[in-house]
Amino acid sequence: MNDISTQPVGSLPPGRSGLPIVGESISYLRDPARFIQQRQQQYGNIFKTHLFGRPTIALIGADAARFLFANEGQRLEMTNTPNFEALLGVHSIGVKTGSAHQVLRKQLFQAFQPRALAEYTVTMETMTHCYLQKWEQMRELTWYPELKQYTLDIAYKLLVGVDTTADENLGTLYETWSNGLLSIPIRFPGSKLDRAMRARERLLQRIDTLIDQRQHNPSTQQDALGILLQAQDEAGNYLSRADVKDNILALLIAGHETLTSALTSLCLFLAQHPDVLQTARAEQAQLGLTGTLTQESLKQLSYLEQVLKEVLRMAPPVVRNGQRKVLETCEFAGFVIPKGWDVFYQIQETQQDPNVYTHPEQFDPQRFAPDRAEDKKVFSHIPFGGGIRECLGKEFARLEMKLFATLLIRDYDWELLPGQNLERVVLPFSRPRDGLKVKFWQRQK
Description:
alpha+beta; five-stranded mixed beta sheet; three-stranded antiparallel beta sheet
């Protein structure tokens, strides 16, 4: 029985602590997937380790995710690396906890309500067409960096109303800033962290200017910045300028990096499984979706929805969820989880549990068909996390993925170029090692 006892009596989970101070951090960073796989095979779905200076317990499986989500904010609390706290900022939802996190989440969610998403759809479709036509002209391309620019352009346009083609420096600043998130947490002149902190200040200055422009010249422009400047909590309080600035940065990374990973995986899996691609095309042809796309028309694509779920199951953009600090000693699966330790859960392995999924190593969108519904076990499919910290932009991401996939499948063909390494790198975000090199062309109908 995987429940919580008020007076834990079990022992620590099996595992090892590794070297003094560094623990097993080097082994983990060298190959995270292999690190987890080896220890799962040796110890099972719960084991102890020592990562990044902290005694840590890793959890795998739907029951483990349920345990963590149920105790979020009570016995467990989100914790961040020093780099994340410094680069996201103290006002960011990514570092908020408790009631402050919940109040801020409600305000930020206003930027992702159905009415806002409906407004975003038109811009997403226009920008997607532009990129597809660009890739057709290129004929051969490395898709990951191209998709990274595509998702960044959409994020900037829909979150702050800025066209990156008119301000190319924004993209460079963003890359410098995001590169510091997983860098060595020591700041000295010229270090990655130092460059990232300087980029953060310049990005915040740019957002400051945008806020000034909106306040002096109010407009009906529907983007996240405009919505957040008008957002109020239940007491009628507006977000502070610092709140808006830090959380726009948080939304940029959430609406960009993970989507790039997911779309790259989609393109790879469809190239490797032409039968799935043809079935998705047949669904569109049967429904006659030839004009401008809407949220309503996209909802009709049930098979495509299964494809996207399978992509996110097989290759989640983030393979593990953020660290939680244990506030109160508790018990899970008969093992003690001590106060003061950290815990995290593995998304990748949870979504490939053979007790839940038939042949989990196979790409099979039909596993999500109504007659099979292999994800019916709660928290067995968690690419967006869950509980009170579930991805805030989940529906934004799902909309962009489905719209992109619909236009790509309908109008274009592509094939993998030979001689490339498709091995999956998982840190900081999942991607093929060589970036996915393809030949790309408009299909003949």
